[in-house]
Amino acid sequence: MRKKLLLTLVVLSLLLAGCSGGDDGGSDGRVTLRFQSLAWQEESVEVNQELVKEWNATHPDVKVEYVQGSWDSVHDQLLTSFEGGEAPDIIHDASDDLADFAYGGYLADLTDLLPQRLKSDIPQRSWDTATFGDGIYGVPFLQEPRVLIANAKWLKESGVRIPTPEQPWSWAEFRKITKQLSGDGKYGVAWPLKEPVSATLNLSLSAGGQLFHRGADGKVTIRFGTGDQVVPRTIHDQADTDHSASPTTLGSGGSDTLPGFFGGKYAMVPLGFSYRQQIVQQAPKGFDWQVLPAPAGAEGLTQGVSPQTLSIAEDSPHKREAAEFIDFLLRPENMVRLALGDWMLPTGSEALKDPALHTTENDWATGTALAGHLRSAPAQSVRGYPEWKDKVATPAFQEYYSGAIDLAELRDRLEDDGNLVLARYQR
Q1: Are 265 and 125 in contact (CB under 8 A)?
Q2: CA-based nearest residue to 274, from 15, 39, 36
Q3: pLDDT tens per residue across span 341-385
């Protein structure tokens, strides 16, 4: 019996060792991490792949495999992989997509995994975008303000005051100037609002908008107040009253407006800062353009932002190694490389000091001057936001901007229908 018992224990120990070996890495004991990146521009993909190669060359015991993901399908793809137990170890996403994953237990709390260097380098206002409850579920590393891309020659010849980050236009002044620039089939601005919700809500922070209000019980309600109405009312009046905003671009994406912009049909287009790359690549030779700050309101240039993030799957057996890779990827010099590759701004304080981000070439300096005004987007931690955005807010804003409904009906739909949606997630 004793021999049989010893034999059984040996067999069990071997079986357990085999299972453990599968969790810890390959048969040689080497750990393998899967890093799913959403980089899509050629420069950005190249930088990400270069950094993975550099890590692998200096970390023989921890190999990182680069996995290409897509922004178009990342939410559903991640949900499927989480539920199937096949999620990548390191996950590239955006902070406004993390709430349901964080609250659902799919992402690891990074609070005790990240080194102090990284925690102190990234400002708290950026950490707020990836903090849900008491945990941190992503490292915010790239961000971009929404800016005005302007036809510099057109504005100069018109004689209008050119805004700067130190002296921006107010929303009222912006409306007045776009009206002044319009006429003869040309428009002062083209708003690309195929996805109107995030643009409207993030810009509304400058006017004191908040929209989502969390009570003492932790539950969120929607209130479409005076500050929330400034930006949508401006867009509506430009398109439907002043005819200073092109009505045909309201259902378009940002890239769709560029041919008309290059062709002299629109004086300005509100776009994300990273669109400068497309402009450099596609603009006709000699086309003179410049970056202007978005208009300011009662809260100055404050703007909501949803940074790109790096998270670790809760099911990953290699959380410590994954955190070490993230720390490597986001060293100041590497964060600068990632930012330049994506034409965006780094969140890290040290990286933001890099001279390459303060040059007047392609107006990097204008965007960098806005970094300190970026705050967590209003919907950042709201459960049920994706459903509210798709089923309630997007159609409501689109109808309002096209003149199909008035401001009062917009308010009723955002609040009444919206609060019904959110209530299902807060029981």
Answers
A1: no
A2: 39
A3: 999 999 999 999 999 999 999 999 999 999 999 999 888 788 888
CA–CA distances in Å: residue 328 to residues 47, 115, 371: 13, 11, 23
Q: Which pair of tokens denotes residue 198? A: 């995030």
The angle that helices 394-401 and 226-236 make with each other, rounded to 10 degrees, is 50
Token couple for 260? 């008309």
CA–CA gap between residue 123 and residue 116 (Å, rounded): 12
Instruction: Choose among 399, 425, 426: nearest CA to 412.
Output: 399
Task: Transcribe 43-77 into DSSP letters.
Answer: HHHHHHHHHHHHHHHH-TTEEEEEEE--TTTHHHH
> Which of 269, 266, 252, 261 lies closest to 147, judged by CA?
269
The closest alpha carbon to 339, from 199, 347, 255, 350, belongs to 347
Q: What pLDDT does 379 receive?
A: 82
| 18 or 294, which is more confident | 294
365: which 2 tokens?
């300096």
CA 42 to CA 377: how far, in whole Å?
A: 28
DSSP-assigned letter for residue 422: H
Amino acid at 77: Q
pLDDT range class, residue 240, cuts 50, 70, 90: very high
Computed on alpha carbons and rounded to an integer, the radius of gyration of the chain in Å comes to 24
Give the strand pairing for 90-94 and 31-37: parallel
- For residue 302, which amino acid is it? T
> Is residue 425 very low, low, confident or very high in pLDDT (cuts 50, 70, 90)?
confident
- Structure tokens given for 293: 């700050």
Pairing of strands 374-376, 303-305: parallel
Nearest to 396 by CA among 209, 232, 241: 232
pTM of the model: 0.89
Tokens found for residue 265: 């049909």
* Angle made by CA atoms 51, 57, 60, in degrees to the nearest 5: 125
Reading the block at residue 75, the tokens are 């939410």
* Window from 14-28, 208-222, 341-355, 381-395 with minimum mean pLDDT: 14-28
- Residue 91 confidence class, pLDDT cut points 50, 70, 90: very high
